[in-house]
Amino acid sequence: MADSMTSVTTPVVEAHGAKIPVIGLGTWRAGTDVAAAAVAAALQCGYRHIDTAIAYANEEAVGEGLRSGGVPRDEIFITTKIPPDQIGLGALERAAEASLKRLKLDQVDLLLIHWPNSAIPLNDSMRALCAAKRAGLTRHIGVSNFPVALLDEAVHRADEPLVTNQCEYHPRLGQTALIESCRRHGIAFTSYAPLGRTQILDDAVVTAIAARLQRTPAQVILRWHIQQPDVVAIPKSQSPARIKENFEIFDFELPPEDMAALSALARPDGRLVNPAWAPRWD
After folding, report:
1. Active site includes 169?
2. How confident is the model at residue 32 (pLDDT cuts 50, 70, 90)?
3. CB burial class (10 A; 0-12, 13-18, 19+) of residue 214?
4. Do residues 138 and 110 touch, judged by C-beta distance below 8 A?
5. 239 inside domain
6. What does the pLDDT look like over 4-22, one tens digit per residue?
């Protein structure tokens, strides 16, 4: 694959009018000293989807990277997320406005509720999220870390379409029920921690497939993600070389037997992200 950022048109998942590039750059734990460089490097090698959040405390740096990356704003899909203590009526809209100021943007492409909060009525949160869209703060809206029942309720209570549910997903964590729920609602599923925080890169099944296909383990796993219908992956890296490597997955395919072998790695203890405020998972 050529280095030129104009050589690749990233495939997208379409959901209720949103066109979400299937690979994005995650910026969790990317400090302000590296986030700007990582975002610029990603844009320069072809990424058109950048993911951040208020909780990451790096929106200013992400915005700097967007401006220095050399890609027109209308070609980039930018996501940010509102933390659970700010998803009430009024508070969510104010938080979104503050995000835009830090990013130095007029609007984001996708605004998510980062985590559900049982102390704030879901109806209020969805009203606030929909109001943020109608106010022009974001082009599209969605949720993150919503299990099936909560996703069903969110879709029911929203009077604007949700376009994604962003959740942990990798070969060691099966998400069949949740992905099927997303498809039933016509929304995309976005995988965070898609490489299992690198813990599965040395799995024997993964390394064997990688060796046979002459690919890296990370490329094999990311290809497994995007070969599934309606699935988007947002791997995080601060290394320009690895950022580029993670993007170079559009010139090969995994055969059905490899897809099945990777999916078979799911296990009951595969979840890596389970904070005290997490909902009851499926």
Report:
1. no
2. confident
3. exposed
4. yes
5. yes
6. 344 457 999 999 999 999 9
Provide the domain count of the chain: 1
Question: Do the beta carbons of residue 128 and residue 159 sit within 8 Å?
Answer: no
Q: DSSP per residue over 119-143, as a string? A: TS-HHHHHHHHHHHHHTTSEEEEEE
Active-site hit among 47, 56, 169, 192? 56
Which strands form 138-144's sheet, in the order they lie side by side?
A: 25-26, 49-51, 77-82, 108-113, 138-144, 162-168, 188-192, 231-233
Rg (CA), the chain: 18
Taking alpha carbons only, the member of 35, 41, 40, 19 closest to residue 102 is 35
Tally Cβ neighbours within 10 Å of residue 70: 9
DSSP state string for 190-240: EEESTTGGGTTTT-HHHHHHHHHHT--HHHHHHHHHHTSTTEEE--B---H
Asked whether the predicted pLDDT for residue 1 surpasses 50, the reply is: no
* CATH code assigned at 116: 3.20.20.100
Which structural domain, as residue segments, surrounds residue 165? Answer: 12-263
